[in-house]
Design brief:
Blueprint: H1 3-18, E1 48-50, E2 58-61, H2 68-77, E3 99-103, H3 113-129, E4 133-137, H4 140-147, H5 152-155, H6 160-166, H7 171-176, H8 180-186, E5 191-194, E6 197-200, H9 210-223, H10 230-233, H11 248-255, E7 259-262, E8 276-277, E9 283-285, E10 301-307, E11 310-316, E12 322-327
Parallel strand pairs: 1-5, 2-3, 3-4, 6-7, 7-9
Antiparallel strand pairs: 2-10, 5-6, 8-9, 10-11, 11-12
Length: 329
């Protein structure tokens, strides 16, 4: 039997399992398209980005979900961008050598997804010029947009696609990588490894080492550049998984880290509306429900720094208030 006959059958069998867990399903026929941005350069854009050394304090946030004004307030109040300007092209990085990590889900559930994407693209360059870094990982909403650029989440009134259409931006050009926004989104890492810390949107690495995870994600994207597979939008993937938290010690050990920082589930491991962590300090959930649609909070930043020789994790809110969450022994 020729491959042209076998391939659709194998894909159908695969998706019986994948769609049992993925919530990227929509009420319409999936919109297919051709990826035009070419083969991903994994040497320049790895699946797991290594930050070594880390130049300064690390700040992390997730699940901005179109909450652009809340993002600006949080970053300005805590000394990462200059207060005042609100247009993405006018933002000024003042964080020096600090590192800002955004753990996925920039889009949907809020009115200004395009502004969030444009602002982070610009701040990435501005921070690098000042000796700092802005690093963004892909989240399940970005992956689901690649899988189906007309899925229910993105097509509704506060979704990424709906906003792009209102601004005269072609969603397929973005999904395919023809638009510069899309090329940037397609090159985002799935995870970040920074010393003892590992950052990923849903966080579940299924007990794999970083080299094994890198290999699996590269293979998945090379085979299915439209994110059509269980590693990207499957229910147990690094972007979609929920309630895996009992496996945290094994996952951290396999990764060679002590802490895993994730978003995705704003009620995981503690109360909503604030950063939560497990009692052993292994897991830090930083999705605080800051999107206007969810509205559990106006957002929080996790800050990691060294104080008197001890590593300290702090929560920063939009008023500038600081709460110590954890301190190394």
């Amino acid at each position: 039997m020729c491959w042209r006959v076998v391939e659709p059958i194998l894909r159908a069998i695969l998706w019986v399992g994948v769609l049992a867990g993925v919530d990227a399903c929509s009420t319409h026929t999936r919109q297919l398209y051709d990826v035009v941005s070419g083969h991903r350069d994994w040497s320049s854009h790895p699946a797991v980005l290594e930050l070594d050394p880390v130049p300064g304090d690390v700040y992390a946030m997730s699940d901005i979900h179109g909450g652009y004004d809340r993002m600006l307030a949080l970053l300005a109040q805590n000394g990462l961008i200059a207060p005042g300007p609100t247009a993405p092209a006018e933002l000024t990085w003042v964080g020096g050598n600090a590192v800002l990590i955004v753990v996925g889900d920039m889009v949907d559930k809020g009115p200004k997804s395009v502004e969030v994407v444009d602002a982070l693209r610009g701040l990435e360059n501005a921070a690098a010029a000042a000796g700092g870094k802005v690093v963004v990982t892909v989240g399940n909403h970005e992956a689901e947009f690649f899988y189906d650029p007309a899925n229910d989440k993105t097509a509704k009134g506060d979704g990424f696609r709906a906003e792009m259409e209102s601004l005269g931006i072609d969603p397929i050009a973005v999904a395919s990588g023809a638009d510069p926004r899309g090329q940037w989104l397609r090159d985002l890492p799935f995870a970040i490894h920074a010393g003892k810390w590992f950052f990923a949107h849903a966080g579940n690495t299924a007990g794999r080492s970083i080299p094994d995870l890198e290999a699996a994600l590269r293979s998945a994207i090379d085979l299915n550049p439209a994110y059509d597979g269980p590693e990207t939008v499957g229910g147990n993937s690094i972007l979609e998984s929920k309630d895996w938290y009992g496996a945290r010690l094994g996952n951290a050990q396999s990764l060679g880290v002590q802490h895993i920082v994730f978003g995705h589930q704003p009620t995981a491991v503690g109360p909503s509306g604030k950063i939560a962590l497990t009692a052993d300090g292994v897991l830090f959930r930083i999705d605080c429900g800051m999107s206007p649609d969810v509205n559990y909070s106006a957002g929080r930043l996790l800050r990691l720094r060294t104080d008197a020789g001890k590593e300290v994790a702090q929560s920063l809110d939009p008023t500038g208030a600081v709460e110590v969450l954890w301190r190394s022994p």
